Amino acid sequence: MWKQILSKLPKKSSKNDHHHHRGREHGGGHSSSSSHASTSKSTDNGHGKSANSHTKNAPSGGRSAGNTNTNTNGGVFTPYEALPSFKDVPNTEKQNLFIKKLNLCRVVFDFTDPTKNIKEKDIKRQTLLELVDYVNSANGKFSEVSIQEVVRMVSANIFRTLNPQPRENKVIDALDLEEEEPSMDLAWPHLQLVYELFLRFVASPDTDTKLAKRYVDQSFVLRLLDLFDSEDPRERDCLKTILHRIYGKFMVHRPFIRKSINNIFYRFVFETEKHNGIAEFLEILGSIINGFALPLKDEHKFVEKDCKLADTVIRGLLKYWPVTNSSKEVMFLNELEEVLEATQPPEFQRCMVPLFRQIARCLNSLHFQTWLFWVSVRVFRQEARESIYYMTHFQFGYVIYIINISSSVAERALFLWNNNHIENLIMQSRKVILPIIFPALERNAQKHWNQAVHSLTLNVRKIFSDLDPELFKECLAKFKEDESKEGETKAKREATWRRLEEVGMRKAS
Predict the structure, then answer these.
(1) Where is this region: Disordered (predicted)?
(2) What b/e readout covers 49-63, taking b as 16+ CB neighbours within 10 angstroms?
């Protein structure tokens, strides 16, 4: 029994172990041969089960070094010390030094406490700056080991659990969402350098795509897409640029990236209704769609490239048209205008009847974001008294922004006639469209409370009146006839209610 207990006690380190430990302290890392002798293609690259599955020979020794200034390495404590500069070693050793610096930067520090690991954080920051410069000025192809270590270092730093700020489960006004202060990641000074390094690495002509795709694989891409839910807009902007580069360089991943973004949209629409990166994803897809070549593949068909899809897309917009949210209605009208710009007469004529029934309802909307307008007036009251040329670019841009978002549903619908292509489509089919929207135009002209809507309505009426006065007269006569019938029906309904009230009063007495 005593032998068993003694056998479990730690043994004294040998002279070789002591010598190896001292060599690591002075060198700041391990030799390249010992570092990569055990690596293989089956490595999880830092984005599988754990970012630490290959830390046995790495100085990081773990996912985070926020609790100590040293790192455990096989039972030996290794100080976090700076490595020599690239300019201080011969060219033959730069590749090995590059790998050692990548391993050094795999340590993740705690940035919630600015007083912890100050020296180590500065060493890591300087090392990341050196790595960025090295990747930017590399002369010669990166080896497979170098590619693997870059992906492992990037994975260890950027792939983390996002902790979104709690949001109240209630309907929030669109302006409140715009005014919310974005959550800024305290680790951004280091994260930014990691993203910069990876961006330059992906874009570098010295990065072999065939080798890199083994490590920048589908699992890596999925975890990269998950980061788009970050509340830090700076991070989302970096991710957007990097995903563009990956999409451009790794052709094998293109269908997978499009499908994965589509799945995120499905989850957003049908499950979570919350995602910080939807705008960035839409921007990325817009850029991708613009780059599609003709003739289109089936999976590449969009309205901008295939106008025959316009009827299907417009009917889809009408199917999900907002009922109670005026801000969303304005957004739908914006999208509708973009789709109609790519629509040709045959497709337009197939959907124009249900389309202009909806537009007629929009024309009579009483919604207007008046308080937003008065906020802008108060903010820029002084500037309004002076010449507009004395306003700063920011102030002028903000005024234009306020004007854009303060438009009403009716006003936005009337703006469709300012688009020459859409106006031509409407006028070509005016004999069908004008009878549908004429009652809405006439009611606006008679009694809409907002002066801007009233003026725009008169302009649209004049366009129809000047182009086809006979059709305009017919519609006006039909409107007056229907109004007269509606008046008679209303009078009969009121008379019926009066009789019912009289009968009820007699019975009650």
Answers:
(1) 1-76
(2) eebbebbebbbbbbe
**pLDDT at residue 3 greater than cutoff 70:** no
Closest CA to 345 of 302, 311, 298, 319: 311
Beta bridge partners of 73: 76
Task: Let me know: does 128 contact 193? Beta carbons within 8 Å.
Answer: yes
Return the top range by mean pLDDT from 73-82, 272-281, 392-401, 419-428.
Answer: 419-428
- Equal CATH topology for 93-162+183-303 and 304-467: yes
Q: Which of 252, 251, 264 is nearest to 224 (CA)?
A: 264
- For the chain, percent of residues with pLDDT exceeding 90: 49
As a whole number of angstroms, the distance between CA 272 and CA 169 comes to 12
202 within 8 A of 245, measured Cβ to Cβ: yes
Q: Give the contacts of 375 (CB within 8 A, at least 6 positions apart).
A: 402
Residue 336 to residue 317: CA distance in whole angstroms: 8
Enumerate the domain spans of the chain.
93-162+183-303, 304-467
Considering only residues 63 and 314, tell me which one the structure prediction assigns the higher pLDDT. 314
Length of the chain: 509
Percent of the chain's residues with pLDDT above 70: 71
CATH architecture, domain 93-162+183-303 = Alpha Horseshoe (1.25)
pLDDT for 61 beyond 50: no
- What CA dihedral angle connects 234, 236, 240 and 245, to 10 degrees? 70
Q: How far apart are CA 149 and CA 263, in angstroms?
A: 30
Specify the residue for token string 């688009």: 419
304-467: CATH topology is: Leucine-rich Repeat Variant (1.25.10)
0.70 surpassed by pTM: no
What is the per-residue pLDDT for 170? Answer: 40
CA-to-CA dists, residue 240 to 28, 47, 305, 445, 468, angstroms: 35, 19, 23, 47, 50
Query: CA-based angle 100:101:103, to the nearest 5?
Result: 65
Q: Do 376 and 396 touch, CB atoms closer than 8 A?
A: no
